[in-house]
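Quick start: what a row looks like.
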Amino acid sequence: MIGIDIGNQSSFVAVVKDCGVETVDNDYSLRATSSVVAFSSRNRILGVAAANQQTSNLTNTISSFKPLLGLRWEDFFVLDEVQRVPYKLVPHPSGGVAVQVCYFGEERVYSMEHITAMLLTGLKVTTETVLKSVIKNCVMAYRKEAMMKAHTSLLRRNQRMICYLVFVLYCLPFCQKVSGICIFLWQSDLDNPNILQERCLLY
């Protein structure tokens, strides 16, 4: 059983192991992985490596993108971010927000859902390497008070569901954070490590 905390600046992965919970280290032996996705003429860069090259590749390094997930292009917050972020935000055909980058020498446009899925892919690969097992499922949970706020509207939750589907994980229905933790514990069998590595909890 693993948990992934996706933050605006950093993300963390934890695993239920040896009757306890441990934070999984990334490729740099750090517990915190930068929530950054970058593009170059040769490859796509994720996490800490993406953050390390940010100053030399500003327009193709996407950071602090979590608040944009699920917002409409005409939202006042988006219009303000367009003037603030170093990368180029553009409207997506769906009406949402996308980013335009230069990847492999070509101009490409990716939705915020795809950018989030790319970050999740990096976290998933790192975790699978550590656990030596395949991660298949996830649970999305929110704090009860956050469910009532505008920034966690049905549209934004649906967009987050899409990014997890792009991430190729089966996502269980939305629930409050407390309910998500209960599912996490209920499905955990601390005496059977073979079961623990089959599921994923995201919140």
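That is the whole record. Residues 1 and 181 are 11 Å apart (CA to CA). Residues 33-113 form a domain with the Defensin A-like fold (CATH 3.30.30.30).
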